[in-house]
Write a structure and sequence with these properties.
InterPro entries: Formyl_trans_C, Formyl_transf_N, Formyl_transf_N_sf, Formyl_transferase-like_C_sf. This protein is an alpha/beta fold and 284 residues long. Helix content is 27%, strand content 27%.
């Protein structure tokens, strides 16, 4: 088995590291991000006596030079990326026998950041986990394996990610096995590509000029532990909305987007009717 240089962060990465270990692969170096959690990748590296770095290869020229210096060794190894936030420069990934990335979206659609969240926001019925070859253009490399994951009507960003989590290690091991057998990855149809950027908490403001269905998708995509969808009370207080339902109440003369109280509950009018705000938190 070829050795592996692993780039990754969070539970998705830990699951893949455990799967690689169980399958008999040797991970000789880990690139990760700063995290002092006992369940984090950095702790995993320390616990398993694996050399690691939290540096960005684009900025740490000394670290990059160490890989280039070891080019002969790298040329017989895999580079594997799982939930790694830094872009790996071509000077690094081109050194390896193959460089692979696991992506939480149905490439060529949903290239970019947090594709599972964007998929729920957009009302998709399914997403996918994709293992592809790394190249300079983000998420544009040839596809080795891809597995569809159904998005249920009640999935949140977190529950969908948990569903997808189980597929990451399976697809990684399957992809490594296929590459060893000489299976050729298939090129993406770039004409079908879509790209979504990084989401920030301020992007969670709810547009009540949309339909109830669109707003519900938006709310569940951003539900805890994610930052949450939000709006403001007439007092100016910000409320984080966790769950909404369509209301059958008929209350006239309500302005779209203005939250009001009725019989102890909060409601707001949207483009297609009245929304009952079932679960929320007032931000101090």
């Amino acid at each position: 088995m070829r050795d592996i240089v692993f780039c990754g962060f969070g539970p998705l990465a830990i699951n893949c590291l455990n799967a690689l270990e169980e399958a008999g692969y040797k991970v000789r170096f880990i690139l990760t991000h700063e995290d002092d959690s006992p369940s984090g990748v950095k702790h995993y590296a320390i616990e398993h006596n694996i050399k690691y770095s939290t540096s960005d290869l684009r900025k740490d020229k000394e670290l990059l030079a160490s890989f280039i210096k070891d080019e002969q060794r790298c040329s017989d190894e895999y580079l594997v990326s799982v939930n790694y936030r830094n872009i790996i420069p071509a000077e690094a990934f081109s050194l390896f026998y193959r460089a692979l990335n696991l992506h939480g979206g149905p490439l060529p659609r949903y290239r970019g950041r947090t594709p599972h969240v964007w998929s729920i926001i957009n009302g998709e019925k399914y997403t996918a986990v994709t293992c592809h070859i790394i190249e300079s253009a983000v998420d544009a490399g040839d596809i080795i394996t891809q597995r569809r994951v159904v998005i249920s009507a009640d999935d949140t960003g977190q529950t969908l990610l948990m569903k997808m989590n189980a597929h990451y290690p399976e697809l990684l091991l399957m992809s490594l096995n296929l590459l060893e057998k000489g299976v050729k990855p298939r090129p993406q149809n770039h004409a079908l590509a879509t790209y979504y950027g990084k989401r920030t908490p301020d992007m969670g403001y709810i547009n009540f000029l949309q339909t109830f269905c669109c707003i519900r998708n938006f709310v569940r995509a951003l539900a805890p532990p994610y930052p949450g969808a939000y709006c403001f009370l007439p007092s100016g207080q910000k409320i984080i909305i966790h769950k909404i339902e369509k209301s059958a109440l008929e209350i006239e003369n309500q302005e779209i987007g203005r939250v009001f109280e009725h019989e102890g509950s909060l409601y707001v009018k949207c483009k297609t009717g009245l929304i009952h705000i079932v679960d929320y938190a007032v931000e101090n």
